[in-house]
Amino acid sequence: MDKHKLIKKIIEKKIYSRLPLIDVKLAFKKNNNNNYTDEEKVKKTRELLGKIYSAFSGQRLMTRRKLSVEEVLKRHRSTRERLPYYSEIYKRVFNNIHFKSIVDLGAGVNGFTYALMPNGINYIGVEGVGQFVDLTNDYFKEEKIKGKVHHFSLFELDRVKRLVKKQPEPRIALLFKVIDGLEILQRNYSKELINEIISVVSINDKIVVSFATKSFEKRRSFHAQRNWLVNFIKERFMIIDDFELGGERYLVFGKG
Ligand SMILES: C[S@@+](CC[C@H](N)C(=O)[O-])C[C@H]1O[C@@H](n2cnc3c(N)ncnc32)[C@H](O)[C@@H]1O
């Protein structure tokens, strides 16, 4: 089967149907191996996408019954693991600075923690899973929250930059637990993304990058400390805070 037909087949299955095409193509490229049968290419690409896009959390969030905020946060792995620590994390990250906007890149369902964010802040998210986008936007509408999540890929660099630039200053951009997924699809892309975001923000804006330091399922620390990322940020930008809470490390930095 040709490449286009295989890609069409991959996204035929409902949970993969609303992922950005650019990411599906990148995942397919990784598995377009001549040693694989067409079925294997489809299966392996879906597995890879499932891993990056928390597609299975997505399924657990797609119930007919309306879920409470707490239920939503508990059904997505990243927010569930962070739940006991959110107030402390936000306190440190926002650090009493009067940010006017948050740009949450690879937002997942993090918008559901809006009540814990600084009062009245303008929340903008970017998320590749259409189901998470709708869920959050419906919640924002119902609660009359000043926020919106956009459905596109973080690989669409110009769109990301334009969106960040449009937000009122001072802004804070969050990249919570998204680096690994980006790196799987395109090595070193996260450095490019951070560099490009920094190029459009002002001196008062901040960026927060987080990554897991502990595997909750296996209850042990990872050996990989993402030194390449920490060093890259330390060498180029000004670190404002660097802390670990609940098995996740947070680096807060700015243009310097
Ligand atoms: C591990 S989850 C973290 C979610 C959220 N940032 C949090 O920490 O609660 C990674 C999220 O990034 C999204 N994501 C991964 N790669 C993406 C991409 N290229 N474009 C847009 N969203 C992406 C996934 O769909 C998923 O919701």
Describe the structure.
With 256 residues, the chain is α/β, with parallel strands linked by helices. The protein has two domains: 3-52; 76-254, Vaccinia Virus protein VP39 (Rossmann fold, 3-Layer(aba) Sandwich), CATH 3.40.50.150. It has helices at residues 3-10, 21-31, 38-52, 55-61, 69-75, 77-82, 86-94, 130-143, 157-166, 179-185, 189-200, 227-236, and strands at 101-105, 122-127, 147-151, 171-176, 206-212, 214-215, 220-221, 238-245, 248-254. Strands 3-2-1-4-5-9-8 form a seven-stranded mixed sheet, with helices on both faces. Strands 6-7 form a two-stranded antiparallel ribbon. α9 packs parallel to α11 (189-200). It is globular, with a radius of gyration of 18 Å. It starts with a helix and ends with a strand. The mean pLDDT is 92. The structure holds S-adenosylmethionine. Residues 23, 52-54, 78-79, 106-108, 110, 126-129, 132, 153-155, 176-178, 181-182 line the site of S-adenosylmethionine. S-adenosylmethionine binds next to α6, β2 and α10.
